[in-house]
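Posted in: Structural Biology > Protein-Ligand Complexes

Title: Requesting predicted complex, flavin mononucleotide in pocket

I'd be grateful if someone could produce the 3D structure tokens for the following input. Sequence and ligand are given below.
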Amino acid sequence: MKVDPDLVHRLFYPQVPLVMAARSGKRVSAMPVVSYLSTSGTPPLVGVACKPESFTCKLALKARAFSLSVLDRKHLAEMSRLATLSGAEVKDKLAAAGLAHSAGTDARVPVLDEAVATLECRLLSAPKSGDHLILIGSVAAAYASEAFSGFWDYQKYSPILYTGWKGGFSLYEGPRRKT
Ligand SMILES: Cc1cc2nc3c(=O)[nH]c(=O)nc-3n(C[C@H](O)[C@H](O)[C@H](O)COP(=O)(O)O)c2cc1C
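-- Reply #1 --
Done. Output follows.
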């Protein structure tokens, strides 16, 4: 079957969504992202392809910083809310989605209290790539829960897997833990 150009990105599914978050002044926004990659090991750099019209992207550009968080599948409902709410309509989208947060240790970013892993990033550049901007971040701090010790322990962390839209919002919760 020939794949419609608009659907090419769906060939990559399932993917683990991360929460990208940013703060400017008292304004906090966040959104699920799957278009992310590690662009360099030394120094540690990451990239996230963002729609320039998303409020979170605008806030990250303004703050010149953003965080990336990994959530366990027990926070699937909060991840879903981040995809349906708009940061333009609420002062603190993380709080509105039910995700408590505090200030980052090394960058001026909000970090999620319930994250199993967090990257605090300073924005280095934002080159345009078609209809997206690639936000390149220098990783100022990275930390994880005890579920990560060089590799993830899937007895302690169950990833959310995103399978795409199908007549509405659908997130595959990921494999069940073995008992
Ligand atoms: C699982 C999932 C992954 C997404 N990945 C991206 C992404 O990588 N880049 C992007 O710009 N938008 C992505 N989106 C869309 C944004 O999350 C969505 O447009 C969000 O509502 C933007 O919110 P905001 O305007 O409050 O920032 C994704 C959505 C979902 C549900």
